[in-house]
């Protein structure tokens, strides 16, 4: 009996130690991954690169997360005036933090798609939409001649990447209402990317969320006419 009690006490002690270590790690390193998923080495390297590149005003900027980052936009559209400002793992909060470097370019047009990683970090629709509102306000303030194109958040293959279908649709409906169709326009890419289940078409992806060549061609078709305006 005494031996059993002693083992229970030892086990409890080590469980408390393990819990304390877990809480410490969560409060330190995991904070970056969970609450600020965009602050990783790759993100910081890309941010540094974009900050140091020569500024070429009056171009076209594609702004967003990994979906934007992974495309060669200038080659996709055969245009040398398109600048890729996507960074893997970025969020609406991350875009707000680095927006000054974007508006400093004084682009003619900005195509923005952001928000999927906000859901990964546990955010709800309302604060994501508020961040969108602030992004648009700042762009309007800092480069009033720029045309802004809000691109809908894309679906995922839910069984592989379980981002909330209903919340994606809700966010898209919310950011659509932010467009005034004068200087801010909404582009519905979502509808051209979904299958009958409301998931991302399997032909457009390998991992359930990121796009392959066919996926980017579908994206190109959706925004092509807006680049010509």
Explain briefly what this protein structure is.
The chain contains eleven helices and five strands; from the N terminus they run αααβααβαβααβαβαα. A five-stranded parallel beta sheet has the order 2-1-3-4-5.
Structure description:
With 229 residues, the protein is of the alpha/beta class. The chain has helices spanning 2-27, 29-34, 41-52, 66-69, 73-76, 92-103, 116-120, 125-142, 165-176, 190-193, 213-228, and strands at residues 60-64, 82-86, 109-113, 147-151, 184-187. It has two domains: 2-31; 37-228, SGNH hydrolase (Rossmann fold). It has a five-stranded parallel beta sheet with strand order 2-1-3-4-5. The protein is globular, with a radius of gyration of 21 Å. Mean pLDDT is 88; it is low at 21-35.
Task: Assign the CATH superfamily of the largest domain.
Answer: SGNH hydrolase
Number of helices: 11
CATH architecture of the largest domain: 3-Layer(aba) Sandwich
> Based on DSSP secondary structure assignment, what is the total number of beta strands?
5
End-to-end Cα distance, whole Å, is 82 Å
Structural class, judged by helices and strands?
A: alpha/beta
The fold-level CATH name of the largest domain is Rossmann fold
Strand content: 5-15%
CATH class of the largest domain: Alpha Beta
């Amino acid at each position: 009996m005494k031996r059993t009690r002693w083992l229970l006490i030892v086990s409890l002690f080590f469980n408390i130690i393990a819990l304390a270590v877990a809480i410490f790690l969560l409060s330190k390193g995991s904070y970056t991954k969970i609450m600020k998923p965009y602050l990783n080495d790759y993100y910081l390297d890309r941010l540094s690169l974009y900050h140091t590149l020569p500024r070429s005003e009056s171009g076209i900027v594609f702004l967003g997360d990994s979906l934007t980052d992974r495309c060669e936009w200038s080659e996709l559209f055969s245009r040398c005036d398109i600048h890729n400002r996507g960074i893997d793992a970025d969020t609406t909060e991350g875009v707000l933090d680095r927006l000054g470097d974007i508006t400093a370019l004084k682009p003619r047009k900005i195509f923005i798609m952001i928000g999927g990683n906000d859901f990964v970090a546990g955010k709800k629709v309302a604060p994501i939409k508020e961040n969108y509102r602030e992004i648009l306000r700042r762009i309007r303030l800092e480069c009033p001649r720029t045309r802004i194109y809000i691109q809908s958040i894309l679906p995922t293959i839910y069984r592989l990447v379980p981002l909330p279908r209903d919340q994606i649709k809700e966010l898209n409906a919310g950011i659509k209402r932010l467009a005034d169709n004068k200087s801010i326009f909404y582009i519905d890419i979502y509808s051209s990317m979904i299958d009958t289940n409301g998931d991302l078409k399997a032909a457009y992806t390998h991992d359930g969320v990121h796009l392959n060549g066919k996926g980017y061609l579908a994206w190109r078709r959706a925004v092509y006419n807006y680049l010509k305006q």
